[in-house]
Amino acid sequence: MTPGSRLTRGRWNFTSGAVIDVAGPLSIDNPQGLRTAALSGLGIVQSAIWLFEQDLAEGRLLPVLAADPPTPMPIHLVTLKSRPMSMRAKRVTDYLIARFAADPLLHTADQATA
107-110 contacts: CB < 8 A, separation 24 or more? Predict the structure, then answer.
């Protein structure tokens, strides 16, 4: 977290096509920092829902703009095509793909019904 006198600017995109330009004096570059800021009452944050699942369920945080969720952000696993993948890396890759595919918090409503 970097508090400062200059405003940090960003843009939030939503599934409806709405766009909100955001600005504030706080810049956070990691998900746990966003969670800490939200729990400390420092403002509204936008991040992956799984990070806040327990806080939402226990009432420590409240959803905002729930009727218009943010556009999905893909997760990428990047490997070198020019090099064969080790068996260990292949197992980790297969494990992550299976876990992410099975986790309902990583899917939009469209993907869940497809």
Answer: 108/15, 108/69, 108/72
What is the value of pTM for the model shown?
0.64
| Number of other residues whose CB lies within 10 A of the CB of residue 9 | 10
* Contact indicator for 42, 26 with CB cutoff of 8 Å: yes
Angle at 36 between CA 100 and CA 17, to 5 degrees: 55
List pLDDT tens digits, range 38-82.
Answer: 999 998 888 888 889 899 999 999 998 889 888 887 788 888 888
Cα separation, 60 vs 75, in Å, equals 27
CA distance 56 to 61: 5
Gap between the Cα atoms of 102 and 113, Å rounded: 13
